[in-house]
């Protein structure tokens, strides 16, 4: 590290050390051109080509590190972020941050779930019962909004086993596929919070140089996510169904139409689509006479 890159001038980004968000967080930063190697034993990874340090920590610590201005940026699930914000606000601690954008991974929901044999009608069925959760603040906010009084059972992990272990009557935990609930003889009754990973910035004012680097990273994140959501589509189409074919391409504006050699009845279409092209649409396209349909991933996008 050179003098002009002393630690206070380097941008500090907190990411999850190991868990559901860690690989996707690293992949996103690498796609943004940040070059680094992670040593599993080390808390910090220095980027080789930009004044950026990655701090690899437990996800629960990331919102607090950003809110206290210890790090400049953090990649975190909205569930953990919101939980920490409610906690800090209730304690009168600083809970300010800026959400730069939602990301395209870490999709899950915080839900209420009860044992399969539980006769659940609505959240009122939980009145007076004990609920196990790692998210006491989000649960309290939801139950207060419904006017339901319940008892807490705070567990940092293994929440789904609590009812079977006789620790609680129901749970409030993260769900994605629902496989963990099913494996534990539980069923989901109500979604109380929907979550994605997001990138947040500390509210502490930054130097111009650091803010410029944050803006550059954010612009690249936008480009990476737009590219991941988009496809490059090439196909051949009969001229008489051209308009119908173009109308079927999702989110494709002003596609390029090119003549084909020795074939005046058909043209080539090149289009960038804002969504994937599903098999059903491809089948519709072939029914309209389209052929040589290619759907390709886009690596980068800008402008
Ligand atoms: N099943 C899931 N599918 C997708 N995203 C999930 C899933 N479960 C959790 N997440 C998201 O990933 C985040 C991290 O989940 P993980 O299970 O790795 O956390 P953890 O066990 O608390 O990790 P840590 O050791 O860092 O505290 C969650 O807070 C949530 O935002
Ligand atoms: O609905 P599903 O697809 O089954 O996912 C839900 C599970 O995923 C998360 O745990 P994870 O597997 O990350 O392990 P952890 O309990 O160690 O955090 C979450 O805490 C649930 O237990
Ligand atoms: Mg955690």
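Sequence proposed for the structure above (303 residues):
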């Amino acid at each position: 590290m050179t003098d002009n890159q002393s630690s206070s001038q380097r941008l500090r980004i907190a990411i999850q050390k190991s868990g559901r968000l860690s690989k996707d967080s690293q992949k996103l930063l690498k796609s943004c051109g940040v070059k680094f190697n992670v040593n599993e034993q080390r808390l910090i990874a220095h980027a080789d080509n930009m004044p950026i340090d990655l701090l690899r920590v437990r996800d629960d610590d990331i919102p607090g590190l950003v809110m206290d201005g210890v790090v400049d940026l953090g990649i975190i699930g909205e569930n953990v972020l919101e939980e920490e914000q409610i906690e800090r606000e209730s304690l009168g601690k600083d809970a300010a941050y800026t959400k730069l954008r939602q990301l395209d991974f870490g999709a899950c929901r915080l839900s209420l779930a009860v044992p399969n044999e539980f006769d659940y009608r609505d959240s009122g069925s939980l009145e007076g019962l004990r609920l196990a959760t790692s998210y006491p603040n989000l649960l309290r906010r939801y139950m207060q909004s419904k006017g339901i009084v319940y008892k807490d059972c705070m567990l940092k992990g293994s929440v789904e086993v609590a009812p079977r272990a006789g620790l609680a009557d129901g749970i409030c935990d993260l769900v994605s596929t629902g496989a963990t609930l099913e494996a534990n003889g539980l069923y989901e009754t109500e979604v109380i919070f929907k979550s994605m990973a997001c990138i947040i910035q500390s509210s502490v004012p930054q130097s111009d140089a650091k803010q410029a680097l944050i803006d550059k990273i954010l612009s690249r994140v936008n480009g990476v996510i737009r590219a991941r959501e988009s496809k490059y589509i090439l196909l051949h189409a009969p001229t008489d169904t051209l308009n119908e074919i173009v109308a079927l391409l999702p989110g494709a504006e002003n596609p390029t139409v090119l003549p084909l050699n020795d074939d005046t009845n058909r043209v080539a279409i090149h289009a960038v689509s804002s969504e994937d092209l599903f098999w059903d649409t491809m089948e519709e396209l072939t029914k309209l006479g389209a052929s040589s349909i290619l759907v390709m991933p886009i690596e980068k996008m800008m402008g």
